[in-house]
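Known limitations

Files may contain more than one protein. Parsers should not assume a single record per file. Below, a two-record file is shown to illustrate correct handling: read the sequence, read the token line, then continue until end of file.
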Amino acid sequence: MIKPLRYCVSSLGLALACAIAGQALAAESTAKLPDHPIRIIAPAAPGGILDQTSRFIGERLSVELGHTVIVENKAGAGGMLGIQTMLRADPDGTTLVMGSLGPNAANYTLQKTISYTPDELAPVIYVLSMPDVIVMNPDVPAKTLDELRAYAKTKEGGLSMAVSTSGSSGHLAGELFKSRTGIPAVNVVYKGASPALVDLMAGRVDFMVDNLITALPLIRDGKLRALAVTSAKRASQLPDTPSMEELGYPGFDVNVWLGLFASSKVPAPVLDTLNQALQKTLARPEVAERFAQQGGVPVGGSREDFGKFVNGEVQRWTTVIKDANIGTD
């Protein structure tokens, strides 16, 4: 039966109205970014994990969005300087900061004064997760935890531990290491992983807790010696290196995590645009391959997922820092 023309026209009008409504809803959920370069603030010195990851992701985000992406290093104040720089920029979504455990979780308890609150930051996406590794100068006469403990008792002045950045995962894992093992060490704080590693390889400090990205090549070249990884299980890249849990320290599980944040003043549709573009970026095979080679995994997920994770980290490290009496140096 042929339908009346009036019915057909009405049906077509309804379909068109639905299509327009759908487009409007899509436009409300995402928004076009301003037509100028995107800036990613890396709150650390060049050469470390924050710098390397920011540049690697920035290059691929540039392709995904068709925007120029610039990475700017702002080291200092335990990563807080980089966040302050981001918050001073126009909240249009074109200035992001690569956040991490220290400035975005631990520092709220660790630092005596902090110039921002969690409410000022909008989690955009969880980028990377990987374990830390406890590394020593090869000249340190110890290859096991027991040997290091014995050596610490004989060394005049005690051991020294390099800290790449106050409040970093390496710093916190190092403090837990000293607290749980009873091995004393004086902290030597640097402005980034690169200068800390230079002094460690030169023998000016005894050991350090660093991430796999920067430590792994040096371990393989024999410039550093791995003692243990800080994750609950062994890292596939270091199959002969035990975890701290294996060595008799249950619950010792500290991982590096990196994620992008924006100002909470950035409109939600713009944040959604960034999240969707970054999800596509992190899903690229070359990203997973690159991170796997260096001991990490891309995480991704929604803005809400990352926000829940960060809130959990704030609560976790508030307890750990207070219980272990961890402080800055």
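...continuing to the second record:
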Amino acid sequence: MNSNELRALRKETDPLADEIVTKYFTESAFDRGKTLLFFDALSRNSDPIPAGLPDYLERYFYETESLPSWADPNKIAKGEQLFTVYGPQILMMLCVKSLPMAYSCGDGAQVLYKTGRLIEQNGVIDGVNRRLMETTQFVISVAQKDGLGPQGKGIRTAQKVRLMHASIRYFLGKGKDWDPAWGQPINQEDMAGTLQSFSSLVIEGLGQSSLKLTPEEKDAYIHLWRVAGHFIGVKPELCPEGYDAAHAMGESIFNDQQKPSDAGHELAKSLLDFMEYMLPGNLFDHLPLFFLQTYMGQKTSEVLGIGWPPKNPLGYFIEKIFTDFDGHMDDDGGFGKLVAYFASKLLFSMDHFYYGGKKARFWIPPSLRENWRL
């Protein structure tokens, strides 16, 4: 798509979800209890639909829970299998590639910054951790085996994400500090870019991690997230089939939107702080920055204000240890071993994270726990 077509998408949102959310908050504009009930229901991801919601909200969940006619169960299953095998690395890609690339989109980053859910407040990192862990949980819910099946957690989670996006649009649209030049909050270009950051960018990142995927595996994982995009409210034409077409779509969006912003810089800093916080001790000091720079490259690293070139000798040193330990391994293999090790430690820390004295709501199915040795 050309730049004019992409810019037009910044004026488009999700009429179905917007209509439902506007109706709900118009009816309960001064009803704090109903408002809290609504957001609590959305924040609990895959939990069942709570009692007490209006009929039209219940209808939304039941009428939008079926797979689209074009969904291919075999491709979905192959995509799920890829996640079963490489889940820790895929979840690591969220932190070192997917989210940073989204933050480099100057206008789209404004939504995340304005909502305040990803920014440390007065030095308190709990909110940052919670939001990033919610994103990780969303990916697990969608990509786990049968996550998009009738009894899976992925569809219900995606339906709730769709309403949460509409809620953010509703409240930001009523605020006085939203610049129309940024486009509509969480518009179709932003949503399509986010979808590619979760799919084609992840596949690209796995390749950078020395993992050799077949074309069928790549296309299957793209298809899995194409189905997820349907439930989130992304227009079908913005969810292309196949890795090559999907990656090209993502590239066109990121090339159109990438530019430095204070919001992007703050978000990148919060992401680095999150990973450093999740990996206490000295062994992994500065490795998160090393990985962000390595996966992002010079242009995006400079846009995010994280510096260039990578200056962490520890990352290269550990990579060299893995290479030297196995005489049959080349440098790429050493980097792949380092990625796998870091990914497993990061996921373990997230799985055992507490905030406010309580264990975080973070669920990994038993089958994946066994495969990932958690």
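Parsers that stop after the first record will miss the second one. For reference, the second record is described as follows. The longest strand covers residues 354-355.
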